[in-house]
From TrEMBL:
Entries under PANTHER family matching the protein: PLATELET-DERIVED GROWTH FACTOR RECEPTOR LIKE, PLATELET-DERIVED GROWTH FACTOR RECEPTOR-LIKE PROTEIN
Protein name: Ig-like domain-containing protein
UniProt-listed PROSITE patterns: IG_LIKE
Keywords for the protein's UniProt record, in alphabetical order: Disulfide bond, Glycoprotein, Immunoglobulin domain, Repeat
Residues in coiled coil: none
Keyword Ribonucleoprotein: no
Species, as recorded: Albula goreensis
Domain of life: Eukaryota
Stretches for region Disordered: 29-48
Amino acid sequence: IDDHGHDVFSKTIHIEGIRYQSTLTLTRPTEEDSGNYTISASSDSSSPASAHFSFLLRVKTPSRALLPLQSPEISPAREDMVVPLHSSFQLSCRGEAELLWDTPLLQVPDWEGPVEDNSGLFVSSITVGNATAAHTGFYTCYYASSNSTEDELEESSIYIYVPDPNVPFVPSVIPYANHVLSDQEEMEIQCRVTDPSANVTLLNIDTQRVVPSLYDSKRGAVGFFSSGTYVCRAVLSGQEYLSEEYIVHGWTGGSGLQVDLQASKAALLVGESLVVTCVARGSEMLEDLWKYPGKMGPARGEDRA
């Protein structure tokens, strides 16, 4: 291994007679390895003779388009980790380009790097000296050159839990995070717990009933929720805790209306019946009115969906 940390192999074999073959192998070359290379051959006969052959090697770093960046690697190499309250922890990340961090807090903890190690990789680390419940969440390492149009493989994450019996739910650092807009797709009520062993259910305050949902300690309560006020209830070691109130609003801010119109037949004879079914989905539909050739006046739909 040379001074650049590369594996260098030189091998000479006898072919036949006075013919020999020498091979030089250089793995993981960088632009610093560019330059003139010379091989010398000499004989041990009574009439010593020597010959030299030189060549110029130019190493060009592959462009991003030719060689996509591999996903950075976080150490410890785990999906999640539980850190004791008020203890310290450190995370490091290695990748092929300059690295940045996203953390649960608006202000990044003590940050080091990125620096390039002797293997040619970039290394960055963050250190938390006094872990609290607010440090619970995803820590994501990503390439500084990344943007929203590039592959998500250019980032890696680890989820940290910091259990605190006095702070069972992760405090939010985002204003109005307890307000949720209803959606036709999956929704999240982000009542995340600091202790992953807690048993959590979602309650509707208006009805005082448990609401069916899937609870993920890294996301919160996941499901489809109607307008109303909700609260999460966590049970840990026999003790019950309630989260702050979450308000689900019925207005989706201009979501599109989806309409499906179907007819029993496309062509009919005089006197035959025609059934036309209209199914509309969306939060902004107030009423449904039918318009058709020859109608006498506004006809209101008998059925709504």
